[in-house]
Design goal:
431 residues; alpha/beta; Dihydrodipicolinate Reductase, domain 2; nine-stranded mixed beta sheet; five-stranded parallel beta sheet; 12 helices; 20% strand; disordered C terminus; binds nicotinamide-adenine-dinucleotide
């Protein structure tokens, strides 16, 4: 399959469908169509995006032999069905997060994807901001020293009024964890990507700030990030968290603290991550993505602007000063994914987040839910993760550091405090 013969289609017609369609166009992949919850929704989106006619139903999309890759941008409860259908139809899959509603569903998708030999990706998109890749390079090269502490937040305000409604508030559609699954998974994936450390155990406090909300009694409520809709409403009890505080123990002995909220006025998409190493600290925020703060003990702190160091990941795609952001991260991720698609299947160590990484977040979510329920530290149970996938979190991350760091630079090996056997066995696997 050559690059330019690859074609995509999208299931879903909302916020993410638009983002995916735009990024695909920017890398030259034709989008043959979308399918929505109804032919009318599909038609509205195809005319807004200037796409060909929508597919009448998902089965029609799957039956279209011209489609090589399906992008799953439907609500969470449909991810398993849509991704499974695409894999069974022999299509590569790019699935939005969370990969599935439960870790059982996520493990099932992992198994099917693995045995199919098809490309499978999950949109943990923060990995593709140049400054996140630069942070990872600095940690992996030893420039920051041993990682001791990782703190951060993911705060939003688009659900801060009782009139705000979205399908995510219904646990049957969004999942039993909301803030954790919707936004926390991005932060947790990023922390693992930058440090290479895996979460060993967690204790979480989950809280509902708005116990009842005014649910529109209409088709589907407000679209993501949009204001409340006019019309009849029904007061509806809420049973998923608006707020979360999570303490984390990583497998190298380092600690983390994550705070999450979808009810913080003024915070639109405030993902921030700060890492304290034994030699230096790093801080990055998604709302100011061109800057990486570098903290020092004995010299002035620095702010690294993207593009400042030619040949490093921080150089990014566009020349310095031509601000890169959220849409560019999707473009960068799809370049990696579509390299694998063009090659006919995933490389041994993918340089993009895979279904395995989606499953990793699902088992972490299980532990977060259990720890909140029992008010106790809970160990991540990775028994659902097939042995054949066991090290791909590390190997994928290690390779992606090298692959993204063009021209490829060998990352110096180093010993870190609390380093475990799994790292050395990972490198024996060729990672
Ligand atoms: N990676 C990211 O940065 C990011 C950001 C936002 C959302 N997401 C994820 O993207 C997914 C979609 O979220 P969104 O914000 O676009 O939601 P949205 O509500 O804007 O869009 C969902 C779309 O799915 C459509 N849909 C519903 N039922 C369907 C069906 N049976 N068949 C086909 N389409 C159907 C709806 O009509 C709607 O257009 C979610 O899983 C969400 O977690 C990811």
């Amino acid at each position: 399959m050559s690059d330019h013969s690859v074609r995509a289609a999208i299931v879903g017609t909302g916020f993410m469908a638009s983002v995916h369609a735009e990024a695909l166009r920017r890398i030259g992949v034709p989008v043959l169509g979308v399918v929505g919850s109804s032919p009318e929704r599909g038609s509205a989106q195809t005319s807004a995006l200037g796409l060909p006619s929508p597919y009448p139903a998902y089965r029609d999309l799957l039956a279209d032999d011209r489609v090589d890759v399906v992008h799953v941008c439907s609500p969470n409860h449909l991810h398993h069905e849509h991704a499974l259908g695409a894999l069974q139809a022999g299509k590569h899959v790019v699935c939005e997060k969370p990969l599935a509603m439960t870790s059982e569903e996520a493990a099932d998708l992992c198994d099917v994807a693995h045995s199919s030999g098809l490309v499978n990706a999950v949109c943990f998109i923060q990995r593709f901001y140049p400054q996140c890749q630069e942070a990872r390079r600095r940690v992996r090269s030893g420039e920051t020293g041993n990682v001791r502490f990782i703190t951060g937040t993911y705060l939003q305000d688009w659900l801060s009024e009782e009139t705000d409604w979205n399908w995510r508030l219904n646990p049957r559609l969004g999942g039993t964890l909301r803030a954790v699954g919707d936004i926390g998974s991005h932060w947790l994936d990023l922390a693992g990507f930058i440090t290479g450390n895996r979460i060993e155990s967690v204790i979480a406090d989950l809280a509902i700030a708005i116990p009842t909300r005014l649910r529109p009694v209409g088709p589907s409520g407000a679209a993501t990030f949009s204001a409340a809709v006019d019309g009849p409403v029904e007061r509806t009890p809420i049973d998923t968290e608006d707020i979360a505080g999570i303490l984390i123990r990583f497998d190298d002995g380092s600690r983390g603290v994550l705070t999450l909220s979808q009810v913080s006025p003024g915070r639109k998409n405030h993902l921030s991550l700060e890492l304290s190493g034994s030699k230096a600290s790093l801080r990055w925020c998604a709302e100011d993505p061109e800057k990486l703060w570098i903290g020092h003990r004995d010299q002035p702190n620095q702010i690294l602007l993207r593009g400042a160091v030619p040949g490093t990941p921080a150089a990014g795609n566009y020349p310095a000063g031509h601000v890169q952001g959220y849409p560019d991260a999707f473009k960068a991720m799809y370049r990696a994914v579509y390299r694998a698609v063009a090659a006919g299947g995933p490389p041994p160590a993918p340089d993009y987040p895979t279904f395995h990484d989606g499953l990793e977040q699902a088992v972490i979510a299980d532990a977060i839910a259990a720890s909140a329920q029992d008010a106790t530290w809970t160990t991540i149970d990775r028994a659902k993760m097939a042995p054949s996938y066991g090290k791909s979190f590390d190997t994928a991350a290690d390779r992606s550091c090298t692959a993204m760091n063009q021209p490829a630079a060998a990352a110096p090996s180093r010993l870190r405090h609390g380093e475990r056997g799994r790292r050395s066995s990972a490198s024996q696997d060729g990672s």
